[in-house]
TrEMBL record:
<dbReference type="GO" id="GO:0006979">
    <property type="term" value="P:response to oxidative stress"/>
</dbReference>
<feature type="binding site">
    <location>
        <position position="145"/>
    </location>
    <ligand>
        <name>heme</name>
    </ligand>
</feature>
<feature type="cross-link" description="3'-histidyl-3-tyrosine (His-Tyr)">
    <location>
        <begin position="373"/>
        <end position="396"/>
    </location>
</feature>
<dbReference type="InterPro" id="IPR029062">
    <property type="entry name" value="Class_I_gatase-like"/>
</dbReference>
<feature type="binding site">
    <location>
        <position position="194"/>
    </location>
    <ligand>
        <name>heme</name>
    </ligand>
</feature>
<dbReference type="GO" id="GO:0042744">
    <property type="term" value="P:hydrogen peroxide catabolic process"/>
</dbReference>
<dbReference type="GO" id="GO:0004096">
    <property type="term" value="F:catalase activity"/>
</dbReference>
<dbReference type="Pfam" id="PF06628">
    <property type="entry name" value="Catalase-rel"/>
</dbReference>
<dbReference type="GO" id="GO:0020037">
    <property type="term" value="F:heme binding"/>
</dbReference>
<dbReference type="Pfam" id="PF00199">
    <property type="entry name" value="Catalase"/>
</dbReference>
<dbReference type="InterPro" id="IPR024712">
    <property type="entry name" value="Catalase_clade2"/>
</dbReference>
<dbReference type="InterPro" id="IPR002226">
    <property type="entry name" value="Catalase_haem_BS"/>
</dbReference>
<comment type="function">
    <text>Decomposes hydrogen peroxide into water and oxygen; serves to protect cells from the toxic effects of hydrogen peroxide.</text>
</comment>
<keyword id="KW-0560">Oxidoreductase</keyword>
<feature type="binding site">
    <location>
        <position position="403"/>
    </location>
    <ligand>
        <name>heme</name>
    </ligand>
</feature>
<feature type="active site">
    <location>
        <position position="109"/>
    </location>
</feature>
<dbReference type="InterPro" id="IPR043156">
    <property type="entry name" value="Catalase_clade2_helical"/>
</dbReference>
């Protein structure tokens, strides 16, 4: 092959396997180059040299206590055909541990994927916060977990759902967790309603179906009665509910936080993660296909991108508001988690950049056992009285007690702070620290008074003394929480026409899956209070009458920042398929591979069989293992008479993806004259054209085919 072979991700192990079972003892393999383990710190935050020390060691199989074994294929029996003996300690240890390998999955956000990375601050936040990790040039290790909300651990990735976007900053002042979502509003305004929305969204309790979906009666029964969920529902029915990739997904802190600077001055802020690759989504048919063909699609995409060196990046930004007694901005209640502040009113100010550059070494130890908590705060960052955030401060701590087996979950390696820990907390299940001294209480003299209190000049976390107005105890919400429609109307009217069409299709699909007509009619009334055309379109799809609005519809100023369409973005890490066969010009196929790899994208050759074309060009996929949903664009270097190639081409066109062909491959699109279908003069021309088209993600000008 000419040129440097491209890095094709997906290598399962660090060592290349032998054909026969190895019999010569060797040490355990190292981690793959794209992997990283939790940092080497003890349970109390002290750095240690643990390069590989937490991994298995030695070349020989042992018991859990280190005794070497000669056999693990046969139980100890009374003769070769006799019963197993109770004496078989190895069998009992092996089976007992196996029986207890699983821990309870998360009630929500059970299915996730994660990566290690680093956050570098640009210093722009120093005017509003004294947090050390946000000072100019500070670099902080991070661990990020992305997730779906409703589905179980074994559910599919590309379902229509909110995505979790949780970031653990291992700062020198303690751990800060920014526990957000890819949607900036929430279904509920008060945490006491959290069990209700999740019970409604989960599978029906009698049949345990449908899995990881909101297209069923209990969900729409709840949200059509509880109209504060309308904003989140609209966002979820938009393209935001089916992201193309975790790498192409915004993140939001959802709540309003209070920042304190060195002078003791406060500001209110909302956190935003802005992906460098832009915000992009799947189309609905594509998402449904992915869930069948590759239910691990988003997990695989994130891990493969990191392995290929296409490290995902996000800019962290804040919207900053004056900290007034009313805690409002331009008439928007900043304590209402179902509301946003349009970026045109308060621009997002970038305060740093995060790069994810390593995959976990062990999924269970890291991705499954990581524990996030909105109450993990550092000096300079405090919470507000948002009633949803206030409830999360309890719930996220409480949930770990059962899931991770007790109060010492913070000592699990992935959760350990990278700062000194002297907390006076003792004992409990799974205690890893070996504490010294005799006085875990204050005040004390037997341990010399240690630990001592820190002052503000020593970066102590101090709850900001917020002055509270006179009030009485009551179960109520502020009147400013009552508007459930105006921002939803603004969101919908800010979308492009193609995005509006997708919203209408999503509502029609979801409500069409409901059994009870009453629920459909109730939700149509909500849509009538948002937009008459949207309501009419959905009603027509359901075969029902469109009701009239029950409130006055006011036309808000659109917010262009809410639309995903209309901008051009980098294409690094995009996956481009090349359809070829044994009749193709191998030099041209190789030229296409090199051009795609040179653009920091991933070239995957698709052919009728595996192995190599002409003995030289590696084949990544066959017509049996490939499907259009894996690719962002497809090139055709041959006519590929196999009917599965025709299906691939048709799906690519139907999903508005860029396609190009040259030479004999032009026969695939004979008679097709549509935007984004490129008749190229050769591989260089084809690759160049497709890369340009990929900058806008899809060719939306192309009508459905």
């Amino acid at each position: 092959m000419a040129g440097k072979p491209p890095k094709i991700p997906g290598t399962p192990a660090a060592l290349e396997p032998q054909l026969a079972e190895p019999t010569t003892p060797v040490d355990p393999p190292e981690a793959k180059p794209d992997q990283q383990a939790p940092a080497g710190v003890t349970a109390t935050g002290n750095p240690v040299d643990v390069d590989g020390a937490r991994a298995q060691s030695g070349a020989f199989l042992t018991t859990a206590q280190g005794a070497r074994l000669t056999d693990t294929d046969h139980s100890l029996k009374a003769g070769p055909r006799g019963p197993i003996l109770l004496q078989d300690h190895h069998f009992r240890e092996k089976i007992t541990h196996f029986d207890h390998e699983r821990i309870p999955e998360r009630v929500v956000h059970a299915r996730g994927a994660a990566a290690h990375g680093v956050f570098k601050a640009n210093g722009a936040a120093t005017t509003v916060t004294k947090a050390g990790f946000l000072k100019k040039g500070a670099e902080t290790p991070v661990f990020v977990r992305f997730s779906t909300v409703l589905g179980s651990r074994g559910s599919a990735d590309a379902v229509r759902d909110t995505r979790g976007f949780a970031t653990k900053f291992y700062t020198e002042e303690g751990t800060f967790d920014l526990v957000g979502n890819n949607i900036p509003v929430f279904f509920i305004q008060d945490a006491i309603k959290f069990p209700d929305i999740i019970h409604a969204g989960k599978p029906h309790p009698d049949r345990e179906i449908p899995q990881a979906q909101s297209a069923h009666d209990t969900f729409w029964d709840f949200v059509s009665l509880h109209t504060e969920a309308t904003a989140h529902t609209m966002w979820n029915m938009s393209d935001r509910g089916i992201p193309r990739s975790y790498r192409m997904m915004e993140g939001f802190g959802v709540h309003t936080f209070r920042l304190i600077n060195d002078a003791g001055e406060t500001s209110l802020v909302k956190f935003h993660w802005k992906p460098r690759l832009g915000v992009h989504s799947l189309v609905w048919e594509e998402a449904q296909m992915i869930n069948g063909f590759d239910p691990d699609y988003h997990r695989r995409d994130l891990a493969d991108a990191i392995e290929a060196g296409a490290y995902p990046e996000w800019d962290l930004g804040v919207q900053v508001f004056p900290d007034t007694p009313e805690q409002t901005f331009e008439g928007i209640d900043l304590l209402d988690p179902t509301k946003i502040v349009p970026e045109e009113l308060a621009p997002v100010q970038i305060i740093g950049t995060m790069v994810l550059n390593a995959n976990p070494t062990n999924f269970f130890a890291e991705t499954e056992q990581v524990a996030f908590h909105p109450g993990h705060l550092v000096s300079g960052i405090d919470v507000t009285d948002d009633p949803l955030l206030q409830g999360r401060l309890f719930s996220y701590l409480d949930t770990q007690l059962t899931r991770l087996g007790g109060p010492n979950f913070g000592q699990i390696p992935i959760n350990r702070p990278h700062a000194p820990v002297n907390d006076m907390l003792r004992d409990g299940f799974h205690q890893h620290a070996v504490h010294k001294g005799v006085a875990p209480y204050k005040p004390n003299s037997l341990d010399g008074g240690c630990p001592f209190f820190a002052g503000a000049d020593e970066d102590a976390f101090i709850d900001f003394p917020v002055e509270l107005p006179a009030a009485q105890k009551e179960r109520a919400a502020a009147r400013s929480f009552d508007d459930h429609y105006s921002q939803v109307r603004q969101f919908y009217r800010s979308l492009s026409e193609v995005e509006k069409a997708h919203v209408a299709e999503a509502y029609t699909f979801e409500l069409g899956k409901c059994y009870e007509q009453t629920i459909k009619e109730r939700q149509l009334q909500i849509l009538a209070n948002i937009d008459a055309d949207l309501c009419a379109t959905v009603a027509a799809g359901l075969g029902l009458e469109a009701p009239a609005p029950t409130i006055e519809l006011v036309d808000p100023a659109p917010s262009p920042a809410l639309s995903q369409v209309g901008k051009t973005w980098p294409v690094q890490g995009r996956i481009i398929g090349i359809v070829a066969d044994d009749t193709s010009d191998l030099g041209e196929v190789e030229a296409a591979v090199q051009a795609i790899d040179g653009a920091d994208c991933v070239p995957l050759v698709i052919a009728p069989h595996g192995g190599k074309l002409g003995g030289t060009v590696p084949i990544s996929r066959t017509f049996l293992t490939a499907r259009s949903v894996e690719f962002d664009a497809v090139l055709f270097a041959s006519p590929a008479l196999d009917p599965r190639a025709r299906i691939l081409a048709d799906e690519t066109l139907r999903h508005h993806k860029a396609v190009a062909a040259w030479g004999d491959g032009l026969a695939m699109f004979e008679g097709v004259a549509a935007p984004g279908v490129v008749s190229a003069t050769g591989p260089a021309d084809a690759v160049s054209a497709v890369l340009e088209l990929l900058g806008t993600h899809r060719v939306w000008e192309r009508t459905a085919m």
